[in-house]
Each structure stands twice: as structure tokens, then as C-alpha cells.
């Protein structure tokens, strides 16, 4: 056999082998590609799972790894976003009274200084039989400051500053001249009004900033509603807590 023929045959044989091994390599690469793709997907899913657990743990302050916290922050509640986009609701006092827990399917609403909050997530306090059930379905602003939960369930704040005014006592008060006493009383009145204002603001801020509750709207009242009511007297326990003026020589 001629040398050239032998080389040609060998070349032919080599070519077949090369094709086969290339085919095998391509199949191997495909296998490798699909298994590495599966591995990549698994890695991403594992990362997302671990990240989700970590985020849930941080947001819930260590309460849950799986978003199962009792009091989710507002931004995790669909109803919070719904209320945000729907805009505020306006309810008359009569309409507001339907949100006191007795009407099935309705949330629990309370109002402070005319602003309505959804306090449904405080069911054990505001639901029927709860220790603060009397606050729902109404604006009881006066009671938040006076602490008189029976007499003061009204939005009428008129005259409440009296709870912070000292009781007049002729003997103690005789140490001031008439003009001085007038000025002192004006100052006491301004301070008392400020205390009532900040007492009410405390609760408005409490409900506004609480992660459990959400602001939903405002109480709609007819014009001149306040003038139609009789000014409430200072409730008994607030009256009893009032003290005499601090004597001049002890101030
Ligand atoms: C002006 C007086 C007071 C007002 C306006 C008031 C109001 C409130 C309100 C609105 C809540 C619910 C807070 C929430 O939604 O998370 C609450 C809770 C609570 N208050 Fe008062 N409070 C007053 C005085 C008191 C006093 C004197 C005590 C103690 C003797 C007290 C004990 C409690 C307790 C224990 C809770 C938690 C209730 C629970 O988790 O079930 N409060 N208070």
C-alpha cells in the first residue's frame, strides 16, 4: 500500500473520531449548561428566600422570619395603601357611630379632634368588652384630656382648661395686688389652655404615628354645631384634682 493511501485512510478515520468527540463534547456542554442554569436558579431562589427572611426579621423587630408579625407596619397592609389612594373619608357623627364594633363587617373607627382613625387592629382594647371600647364610634376628645371616661365623651373642649387652673383662696391670694392678680390669672389661663392643647395633641400624634392604626378621614359637622351644645361642666374627678395657688413666698 502506498504511503499516501495509508495517510489518507488515517485522515478519514481521524475525521470520524473528531466528529464523534465533538458531538460528545457538545452534548456534555449542553448537559453542563442546563445543570449550571438549574444551579443558578437555585442560588437566586435561595438568596431571595434568605433575604426575605432577614428583611422580615428586621422589619418585625425580631418577631418573625416569615412576615407573620402581629402588627405589620402600615406600608405592608394593602388596606393602608387603598386608604391612601382613595383619599380621606368624611363621616357625620351619626355615620361615625356605626363604626363602634356592633355592625358586622365594619372596621372600628374613633376620632380625636375631628380626625378619624381606624383602630381595628386594637380589637382587644376597642372592640366590644374592651377597656377602651367607649372611644370608638365617636369623637371623645374631651375625655382624652380630662380622663373622665363617662361624663366627657364629647368633642366639646370648651372650659376644659379649668382643670389646670388653681383654685382661688382669699388668704393666699391676698399677697398679690389686684393688678398683679389680674396679670397672674391671665398667665395661668394661657398656660392652662396650652396644657389642654398639648394633651389633645399628644393623642392625635399617638394615633397618627402608631404603626397599628391609620388615619382614614375627618368628622363632617354642620356649621355652628359647637354653639348648639351646652358648655360641659368640669367633670368631678378633674375638679377634685385642682389645687390652690402656690403661696407667693413659695414661688
Ligand atoms: C387621661 C387618662 C387616660 C387616657 C386618655 C388613656 C387612654 C388610653 C388609650 C387610648 C389606650 C389605648 C392605646 C392603644 O391603642 O394602644 C390606653 C391603653 C392603656 N391604658 Fe390608658 N388612658 C388613660 C389613663 C390610664 C390610667 C390612669 C391607667 C392605669 C391605671 C391606664 C392604663 C392603660 C393600660 C394598661 C392600657 C393598655 C391596655 C391594653 O393593652 O389592653 N390608662 N389608654
Automatic annotation (TrEMBL):
One Gene Ontology cellular component annotation held by this UniProt entry: endomembrane system
Basic and acidic residues bias spans: 1-17
Record domain Cytochrome b5 heme-binding: where: 91-193
Transmembrane segments: 41-59
SUPFAM superfamilies to which the protein is assigned, alphabetical: Cytochrome b5-like heme/steroid binding domain
InterPro entries, sorted: Cyt_B5-like_heme/steroid-bd (IPR001199), Cyt_B5-like_heme/steroid_sf (IPR036400), MAPR/NEUFC/NENF-like (IPR050577)
Record keywords, A-Z: Membrane, Transmembrane, Transmembrane helix
Region (Disordered): 1-29
Domain of life: Eukaryota
Xref: Pfam families: Cyt-b5
Homology family: Belongs to the cytochrome b5 family. MAPR subfamily.
Stated name of the protein: Heme/steroid binding domain protein
Amino acid at each position: 500500500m502506498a504511503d499516501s493511501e495509508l495517510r489518507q485512510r488515517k485522515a478519514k478515520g481521524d475525521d470520524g473520531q473528531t466528529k464523534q468527540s465533538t458531538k460528545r463534547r457538545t452534548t456534555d456542554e449542553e448537559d453542563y449548561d442546563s445543570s449550571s442554569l438549574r444551579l443558578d436558579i437555585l442560588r437566586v431562589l435561595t438568596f431571595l428566600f434568605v433575604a426575605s427572611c432577614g428583611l422580615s426579621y428586621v422589619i418585625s423587630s425580631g418577631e418573625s422570619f416569615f412576615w407573620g408579625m402581629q402588627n405589620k407596619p402600615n406600608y405592608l397592609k394593602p388596606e393602608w395603601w387603598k386608604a391612601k389612594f382613595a383619599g380621606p373619608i368624611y363621616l357625620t357623627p351619626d355615620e361615625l357611630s356605626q363604626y363602634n364594633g356592633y355592625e358586622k363587617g365594619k372596621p372600628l373607627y374613633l376620632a380625636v379632634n375631628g380626625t378619624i382613625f381606624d383602630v381595628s387592629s386594637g380589637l382587644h382594647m376597642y372592640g366590644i368588652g374592651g377597656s377602651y371600647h367607649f372611644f370608638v364610634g365617636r369623637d371623645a376628645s374631651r375625655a382624652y384630656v380630662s380622663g373622665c371616661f363617662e361624663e366627657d365623651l364629647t368633642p366639646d373642649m370648651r372650659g376644659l382648661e379649668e382643670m389646670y387652673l388653681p383654685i382661688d383662696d382669699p388668704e393666699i391670694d391676698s399677697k398679690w395686688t389686684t393688678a398683679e392678680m389680674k396679670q397672674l390669672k391671665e398667665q395661668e389661663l394661657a398656660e392652662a389652655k396650652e396644657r389642654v392643647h398639648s394633651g389633645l395633641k399628644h393623642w392625635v400624634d399617638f394615633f397618627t404615628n402608631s404603626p397599628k392604626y391609620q388615619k382614614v378621614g375627618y368628622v363632617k359637622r354642620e356649621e355652628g354645631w359647637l354653639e348648639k351644645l351646652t358648655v360641659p361642666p368640669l367633670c368631678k374627678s378633674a375638679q377634685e384634682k385642682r389645687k390652690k395657688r402656690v403661696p407667693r413666698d413659695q414661688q
